[in-house]
Amino acid sequence: MTKKIIAIAGIALLALAAQGAPAMAQANVGGTWTLTLEGPEGPVAAQVVLTQEGMSVTGTIEMDLVDSAAISDGMVHENTFTFLLLISVQGQEIPLQGTGEVADNTMTGELLVPDFGGFPFSAVRATS
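and the corresponding structure tokens:
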């Protein structure tokens, strides 16, 4: 009888533990961000406008040296934001992959540039 009670109590505790651990909330990256990219020749400022629907994100980025570029294939999973950015520099299309960690109104991450490696960035969301 004691083994049966212990087994039932163990099953009940496992069920409570599975229900009691809250899932991590989905980050919200929508809005206008002021981004600073640490480039090879020093910091580069940019303005990023993101639209989020569920886990999917699209947007635009404007910075010196490149025309406005579209952010595509953006995804948010918990507090991680990944995206693809296709920029045109001197007529050449360059795909950049980005990954960032979001915490409220701040974001930090890295932008991977083919043949040049990764460059860190930080961003702050504009408050309304």
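(Above: one complete record from the training split.) The two ends are 63 Å apart (CA to CA).
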